[in-house]
């Protein structure tokens, strides 16, 4: 018998280590690529917003006050009259807290067919305090054209917890807003012929001219001809040329491209959130940050005199004042062309918090050293 000699793993280790950097470099661009379907939509395939006004009944005393919520009382009277109950003569005697007026909203998906179900959201309109356990009555949902496209009804689920006692209350979540899964039935379809035109247009979710040209180039390379053209930073026009529109689009949306992005810094000033893109660069700039902090502490003390001294108990104020000039802060220099990582590391090295970092970024932009778009929300 002939025996095969096996090379030990230690002998293969140098070769594996030598090939590892090349493999990582080859895999790098692939990891940055995304599918076209994840960054672009087909023009015409869109949702439509629906809205309606309805009543939620069956609440445990947490509904609207009929004396102050006039629209709830009028809606309740109208519903009862349609069901054969006349309450016009006793309108002022209506006093229930088990009914709440609500706004019902939903998104009608593209190609939703008659009889399909969609989710809806329910939000209190009056002074109701809790919609948990309520039942939404039949509510027509209208689109912008005034036509009814769906009808909603079902039990409201808020996912919130609310408990109240004589001297306190606890609330978790928002009990005045809820959802009904599959709570509406589609009654009217939005007409749209997907495969009737000679061209399709892709709409980029983040408009960018470079990304649009890359998408057109990838589609042309896959089709073997010039069927795609980037008409503007948001739109890529594709000629069907007698092809099966569904099959061709299914092939296109699986193609991968590397999207480009604008150097942008987004600041949410209310919450102190800062998000910076990977292409953010800085010119050479010196940064110094420091604040004067004065801390005043009041610690009053109770002075109790000796029982034989005949004095009275008194409260003596004690005030402590501390001044922090933050002299340990130093002037920091960021060299030109630094990356996002260098910028964050430099600011963190200065001990800068999110709030102060927002001020620093705005000042750097004002000095012309921030080579990026600064967006403050």
Automatic annotation (TrEMBL):
Q: Does the keyword Cell membrane apply?
A: no
Q: Which UniProt keywords apply?
A: Bacterial flagellum, Cell projection, Cilium, Flagellum, Periplasm, Signal
For this UniProt entry, what is the primary localization, expressed as one broad class?
other
> What is the annotated localization of this protein?
Bacterial flagellum basal body
Please give the superkingdom of this protein's source. Bacteria
What residue range is the signal peptide? 1-32
Record's InterPro entries?
A: Flag_FlgI
Q: Which NCBIfam families match?
A: PRK05303.1 (NF003676)
Q: What does this protein do?
A: Assembles around the rod to form the L-ring and probably protects the motor/basal body from shearing forces during rotation.
Q: Which family does it belong to?
A: Belongs to the FlgI family.
Quaternary structure and interacting proteins, as annotated: The basal body constitutes a major portion of the flagellar organelle and consists of four rings (L,P,S, and M) mounted on a central rod.
**PANTHER family in UniProt:** FLAGELLAR P-RING PERIPLASMIC PROTEIN FLGI, FLAGELLAR P-RING PROTEIN
This chain belongs to the protein called: Flagellar P-ring protein
Which organism's genome codes for this protein? Answer: Falsiroseomonas selenitidurans
Gene that produces this protein: flgI
